[in-house]
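Posting for a labmate who doesn't have an account.
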Amino acid sequence: MSSFRKPSLNWLLVFLPVTVAFEYLSPELHTLIFFSSCLAIVPLAGLMGKATEHVAERTGETIGGLLNATFGNAAELIIALMALREGLHDVVKASLTGSIIGNILLVLGAAFVFGGVRHKVQRFNPSGARVQATMLTLAAIALILPAAYHHLGGQYTLHAKRI
C-alpha cells in the first residue's frame, strides 16, 4: 500500500486512455490531444528505458547500449516514419537536424553544468573525445552522402528507371 502512495511518474499513465478518448471523442481539440499525449509519453519512455536496462543485464554492455540508443529514439523514429509516409520530407529533415543539434548542445551543456556542480575539477579524456569525434564525423558523412548523391544527379537515375 505504501508503494501506491509514493511519488512516481507512472501516475502520468492515466493520460494514455485520456489521450485516446480525446482523439476519438473530440478530434478537433488538437492542442489538448498534443499536451495529453506529451504527458502520457513520459512514463512510457521511462518504462522503455527500464526494459532496455533489464535486457542489457542479460545481453551485455554492447548490445544493451545498442538497444538503449535505438529504443531511446523510438518516438522520433515513429514520428519520422509517419511523416515520410505522408510525404513530409522537410519535417523529417528538420526533426533530424533538431535532434542532432539538441543532442550536441543540450546534452553536452548539461553534462558540463552537472559535472561542474559535482566535481569541481573536470579532466579531459582525449581517448573518449577521439571516439566521439569519429562517431560525429561518420554521422555527418552518413547524412551528407544521400544528399550529395541526389544533388549530383541521383534523381535522374531514379526517374530513368521508371521509364
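Reply:
Got it, the C-alpha cells are right above this. Residues 19 and 123 are 46 Å apart (CA to CA).
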